Sequence to fold (98 residues):
Amino acid sequence: MGLTEFAQQLINGLSLGAFYALIALGYTMVYGILRFINFAHGDVFMLGAFCGYYLTPKLMPHFTGALAPMGVVVVLLVTMAICALIGIVIALCGAAQN
Fold:
């Protein structure tokens, strides 16, 4: 295994570990505050991944050349807004049931 392949696998492992840590942190915060496990957190994380996946080819053609990093930021912001709205709807539906 060459140095390039090792570096790529190291980056892959760190990024996957960061995703796992983000999900675990969300579960910990929800459990610490509400004292129950809310498994909808993983669902919102998955929906965010799909939103980013589908929004990228729709929005990135509008940002070419030097504006490409701005397109990534726009995709992330729109995805975060969609996930926030989904989270609010889930919270309101849960509150309405209680």
About this structure: The radius of gyration is 17 Å. The helical segments are 3-34, 40-59, 68-97. The chain has a mean pLDDT of 89. Residues 23 and 42 are 7 Å apart (CA to CA).
